[in-house]
Design a protein that fits this description.
The chain is α+β, with helices and mostly antiparallel strands. 32% of the residues lie in helices and 28% in strands.
Length: 743
């Protein structure tokens, strides 16, 4: 059969095209398509690479261009021109070993910045760099040419004082050199004191930055000193300003007579709070009364903080700056002054309190027939802790975790104070929960690490808590209230525009990470469907969690699934909440400890009074600030847990424990002890004297010689080697039995 003119041309091109010509053709093509991601198949088609040798040559060239950082392989066999200019703007990340890096704005691979080229930039500084041409076989490198914005100039560390000068040795080891402090700038600090030091100068040719002491926190190792040091490291306040406390002291606790006439009165309706046993800031209460057969009125009553904290006041400005209460292991650093959060606003039993309430009319199947959002006055009849409610439910036949409500009572009725009301609330909550999961809400049943602490702050016991039915009862009604408030503003009815509101948003999971999860679980014998909708993805994840529950690989699968999730945050631009499967969601139920809830209360009141929509840009800035502060608070909380974990495990150095691998990195494996959830690192140098390859995609370290494999979720036996309090780090080694088993 005769060949066409086109086929003859392609064959000729295939024979004649040399490497140099193909390189030029590829470079020209990438520049023409500089903003597009180009697949290998598309490149072959567009450049008419039809023969096998030409395709192989093309792949070799693409690999070389990628190594030279000329193009980036954004996904398997998908490439994009790396068209950053000679100068770039981004964030500087400092490391104590001098191997600093630069993260470009808008994402991208880190760029190495040698200490000599850092211009003394600090961690987190916004900088402009000159990007060097990449050398073959070397990582991308640059030089800081301008510091655009300082992120932080204060550091926390331990003082080492000499006769006429001192040094601050920093905790987080982000500085290559210690901070030099002249004697007159010591503020009375002594060797061994924890201190906050501000860098005031770093001369061009000087090895050390020069600083001055801002505050002495106390002796290193003292519990309060260490907790304050953690807060200071994250730039969080560890004392409450006296001026703000005084302003709170001037607020009268008595409710003015005219307030009662403006509000719905719930003082004679059965109402109670359910909180952790050590809580003092009760910001939510539940009321319940029967309207008629199979019809119930449930009130979700939230402390009316904005009645006492007026916008722009000194208390409000401090609360806005803090944005959240911070919960360390042994203390709470409140968003509001103690007089407000623990007394005036707190819904304490047998005290009349002002609230902002979501009141629902529900049938026996927990269908919401009607609701209203109103200002109220309540009087809590009883303060419960979760354990008391859990015990009451179980005493009346509830089996925790089954999702089944209490059976019908005997002749004598249910046992316990307010039993009828609590059991009804539990039954309604369980139906709400079932509907939520049917609709696509994700079911991650996570555990929380807790410590028992003695009077000196020393941990005496370490254990984990799982959420029980009593916790879930409160959770469901808070979710219902938050969702209802969001919908009330977002869906105002036909012909009306939604007004500005801070939403709690949660984006869809990372598609690539979900695909990795799908591939990995397929190797383990589980099938997770590919999906195209949010609801279907959520249902596939829930089904997978059910299938792996109780199996050896459950930890592995749950960890990777959690890592595929995005972080929830605040925004005025609503995209819905993937994890909860809600189209609209906000935070309304905790204004004592979260500033976004205060913002929502203010806007709701404004809109109910007929006010115009608030400035979206202003509230978006506040949302971003609150999201940032939430993340910082969580990091400080984790560091306090790490500190107490290391302190607790210091008593067990040399002892062996059963554990599982909770993290795999190129430098070693993290192992979590099964009985108490304490986590430590087994460095790669301590693994069997083999050379290991890190398989990032499958979360494995694989030995070249013995073929030992360490994978996320695997059970191991470890021995506690070291507990370093200063670095908040536990070091483990594998027990001899574990080494032999691997071989």
């Amino acid at each position: 059969m005769a060949k066409t003119k086109k086929e003859k041309k392609e064959k000729k091109a295939g024979k004649r095209m040399k490497k140099k010509e193909l390189v030029k053709a590829l470079l020209d093509f990438f520049h023409v398509k500089q903003d597009e991601v180009l697949s290998l198949k598309y490149i072959f088609e567009q450049l008419h690479l039809t023969t096998h040798p030409l395709k192989m040559l093309c792949m070799d060239i693409l690999s070389e261009l990628s190594d030279d950082d000329y193009i980036t392989e954004v996904d398997k066999h998908k490439y994009k021109l790396n068209n950053h200019g000679v100068e770039m703007t981004g964030t500087f990340q400092r490391k104590s070993n001098g191997k600093n890096s630069f993260i470009p704005e808008g994402g991208g691979d880190p760029i190495f910045i040698a200490e000599r080229n850092s211009a003394h930039a600090m961690a987190g500084d916004k900088v402009r760099i000159a990007f060097y041409a990449k050398r073959r076989g070397r990582e991308a490198e640059g030089e800081v040419i301008e510091i655009l914005e300082r992120a932080n100039d204060t550091f926390v560390g331990t003082l080492e004082v000499a006769k006429s000068y001192a040094f601050l040795v920093t905790e987080n080891r982000t500085l290559a050199n210690d901070i030099f402090i002249p004697k007159e700038k010591l503020k009375g600090g002594k060797t061994g004191d924890k201190a906050i030091v501000k860098v005031v100068e770093w001369p061009d040719k000087a090895k050390n930055p020069i600083g001055q002491v801002i505050d002495i926190l106390g002796k290193a190792g003292d519990n309060t000193t260490e907790m304050h040091a953690i807060l200071a490291e994250f730039g969080l306040p560890y004392v409450y300003p006296a001026s703000v406390e005084k302003a709170a002291d001037r607020i009268p606790a008595e409710i003015p007579a005219e307030e009662y006439t403006k509000r719905e009165d719930f003082r004679n309706v059965t109402t109670f709070t359910i909180d952790p046993k050590d809580a003092k800031d009760f910001d939510d209460a539940l009321s319940i009364r029967k309207l008629k057969d199979n019809l119930w009125e449930v009130g979700v009553h939230i402390a009316d903080v904005t009645h006492y904290v007026t916008e722009g006041s000194i208390i409000d400005k401090e609360a806005e700056k803090r944005a959240t209460s911070v919960y360390l292991v042994d203390r709470t650093i409140p968003m509001l002054p103690e007089r407000l959060c623990n007394f005036i606003c707190s819904l304490r039993p047998n005290e009349e309190k002002l609230c902002y309430s979501c009141v629902f009319t529900l049938d026996g199947e927990a269908n919401v027939l009607d609701y209203r959002i109103v200002h109220t006055v309540i009087r809590s009849d009883r303060r419960y802790c979760y354990a008391e409610v859990q015990q009451l439910l179980e005493d009346n036949g509830v089996v925790d975790g089954t999702g089944e409500p209490a059976p019908a009572p005997g002749k004598e009725g249910y046992k316990g104070e307010n039993a009828q009301q609590l059991i009804m609330l539990d039954a309604l909550a369980k139906r709400l929960r079932q509907k939520r999961f049917r609709h696509g809400s994700i079911n991650f049943d996570t555990e929380e690490l807790h410590f028992d602490i003695d009077e000196k702050g020393k941990p005496t016991r370490c254990y984990f808590k799982r959420s029980k039915d009593a916790n879930k009862l409160i959770e469901e009604f808070m979710l219902l209230a938050n969702r209802t408030v969001a919908e009330s503003v977002a869906c105002p009815g036909k012909g009306k525009k939604p007004k500005t509101l801070p939403y709690r948003i949660h984006d869809d999971p990372d598609p690539q990470k979900l695909e990795n999860l799908r591939e990995l679980t397929a190797k383990l014998g589980y099938k997770m469907k590919s999906t195209s909708t949010k609801g279907a993805t959520a249902r596939a994840l829930n089904k997978l969690m059910e299938e792996v529950d109780g199996h050896r690989e459950a930890k592995l699968v749950q960890t990777i699934a959690l890592r595929s999730m995005m972080k929830a945050k605040y925004s005025t631009h609503n995209i819905g909440h993937f994890g909860l499967a809600f189209d609209y969601y906000t935070h309304f139920t905790s204004p004592i400890r979260r500033y976004p809830d205060t913002m929502v209360h203010r806007l709701l009141t404004r809109y109910q009074d007929g006010g115009r929509s608030a400035n979206k840009n202003h509230y978006e800035e506040l949302c971003e600030h609150c999201s940032d502060m939430e993340q910082i608070a969580q990091n400080a909380e984790r560091d306090s847990i790490k500190y107490k974990m290391v302190e607790f495990m210091g008593e067990f150095v040399g002892e062996e424990f059963d554990a599982h691998i909770s993290g795999v990195q190129s430098y070693g494996i993290y192992c979590e002890i099964d009985e108490n959830h304490c986590e430590g690192l087994v460095p790669i140098r301590d693994l069997d004297g083999d050379y290991y390859d890190f398989d990032e995609k499958n979360f494995q370290l694989i030995g070249r010689r013995h073929h030992s494999c360490y994978q996320l979720g695997d059970p191991v036996r470890i021995r506690v080697a070291q507990a370093n309090l200063e670095r908040r780090q536990l070091d483990f080694v594998l027990a001899d039995s574990a080494r032999e088993e691997r071989k």
